[in-house]
Amino acid sequence: EVQLVESGGGLVQPGGSLRLSCAASGFTFDGYAMSWVRQAPGQGLEWVSAINWSGGSTVYAESMKGRFTISRDNAKNTLYLQMNSLKSEDTAVYYCAREIRDGTSYDYWGQGTQVTVSS
Fold first, then answer.
1. Cα(46)–Cα(28) distance, integer angstroms
2. Is a pLDDT exceeding 90 seen at residue 102?
3. Are 50 and 72 in contact (CB under 8 A)?
4. How confident is the model at residue 113 (pLDDT cuts 50, 70, 90)?
5. What count of other Cβ atoms lies within 10 Å of the Cβ of residue 58?
6. Of 6, 40, 37, which Cα lies nearest the Cα of 99?
7. What average pLDDT does the chain have?
8. What is the largest distance, in Å, between two alpha-carbon atoms of the chain?
9. Predicted local confidence at residue 100, as pLDDT
10. Residue 65 burial (10 A CB sphere; 0-12, 13-18, 19+)
């Protein structure tokens, strides 16, 4: 059974940092690209960042460039998102998702972890 379990969310002040983790199980983790996607209150899903199977290629949404860093540890079957210089508009539920082979969509999602940026 494929499982993705996020952790690391919480309440942080503007300008602060958090590191999210996504523990993967039930599949060959290094066989898949992975993404982080978020959903702010009352909003739709917003793609945040993606990383290829090896970690050698990463991409970011424009508003996250320079502040967020996606990474993965294939030996630990874990995906990460380091978030720095957090803003109130980063408040959202953050999900990790497994990309399907052609990269056009996702087939498995985690349950999400809440990130709240507030003073």
1. 26
2. no
3. no
4. very high
5. 14
6. 37
7. 96
8. 41
9. 93
10. exposed
Which single residue is written with the structure tokens 């050698």?
Answer: 56
pLDDT at 101: 82
Q: Six-digit token pair at 75?
A: 């030996």
pLDDT tens-digit map of 66-96: 999 999 999 999 999 999 999 999 999 999 9
Which tokens go with 78?
Answer: 């874990």
How many CA within 13 A on the CB side of residue 53? 10
Q: Distance (Å, rounded) from C-alpha 116 to C-alpha 89?
A: 9
Percentage of the chain surpassing pLDDT 90? 97
Q: Which amino acid is at 21?
A: S
Question: What string of H, E and C letters represents the secondary structure of the chain?
Answer: CCEEEEECCEEECCCCCEEEEEEEECCCHHHCCEEEEEECCCCCEEEEEEECCCCCCEEECHHHCCCEEEEEECCCCEEEEEECCCCHHHCEEEEEEEECCCCCCEEEECCCEEEEECC
